[in-house]
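Before our next group meeting I need something from you. Please put the record directly below this note.
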Amino acid sequence: MSFHGVHLIIIIYLFLCAKIDTSPEYESGDVNHEKTKYFRDENQPLLSPTDVQWEKYIKLIEQAEKDHLNRTDDPNLTVFHQQIDRDFSYWKNQSIDGIRRQLTVSEATAHAHRLTLYQIINHRLYRQTEDQLIFPARNHGIEHFLLNIIDSLPDMEFLLNTYDWPQNQPTIPILSFSKSLDSRDTDILYPAWAFWDGGPALGSVYPTGIGRWDVMRQTLNKARQTYPWSKKESRGFFRGSRTSPERDPLILLSRSSPDLLDAQYTKNQAWKSDEDTLGYPPASELKHEDFCQFKYLFNFRGVAASFRLRHLFLCGSLVLHVGSDWIEFFYDRLEPWYHYIPISTDLHEVKDILLFAQSNDRLVAKIARQGRDFIWNALTMQNVELYWKELLLEYYKLFGNPQKPVTKKAKFMQIHRRPKP
């Protein structure tokens, strides 16, 4: 072979080597690549018992990948608009005239159920005075978004719930931040106050609340860069108070299998002794960015949906989401086995899932990246504000009564902008 021929072969070889992805971050991993390790063709030997154990999870991930690719979204709708359609579907099947009659006594309803009655009149915002509110700070967080969009809204009034739990009233529409699918709650979801202000406060690390979503996005993105996938610990992680005994199996598994996860209870307001943290002293609280050093992060509901979920995704870690009952407005767009791995509330499969994750690093890294990218790109402050606008315009379209002008209540106060938290 001539010198030029050898030289050409070397060039081609070097070019092909440059195309091979050797990055430990698995930025271009795919399901098919991982699947080949566990599924045989006619020329491959039978699967070992260990490989068969993971086959069920790989098939779930493969199906989620197909479902995602086959998903068709209406190009005329914004990213979370389907949740608005779902929330109003119940009300569109009710007597609109009957609902409008109920809304004529909305001030009495607000007083009876400790709700906030908002009025929008000539692009000004009104409600009860501060002493009539259950959680004024929560209202302040909500009002940031209402004032941002008020020039786009017609005269209207609506009832809003700032409690953690929904109201589930069958004859009058109420806006709530969270609701239960199992209970078929009739509440209409709105983006929680916590995107801007109003808590929740978390002990010593977040004494006045987790903080604005736009700020936390940047904080968690820096933490993700500090702890890229290759530098994260290959263990599960959970810190939280014992708001429900359904979390106990995870804590006990951590004590028996610390190589799999680090899960510990912290104090809450009800804590009196180590008995309240399953016989161990309460663990120190950590900021959300400290969670990012672990690969697998657990999310549990609290009294209702957890404010923590969206933050966990931005670590670039794999989110293990326990239960599927309680939702916020953006949950519908999160796809199990594509954006996160679902865990049943009894946690019976949790050890198996952690072993699977440790044995399939490239595959779960891809899910982690997909979940993070979705929350980063879709759950922006701009889209939160847009959701508020679409929600209230849809509300007015269904319940508004142009024939009856909205009149300011006698003791209501006008709401003005507040300094940034």
About this structure: The radius of gyration is 25 Å.
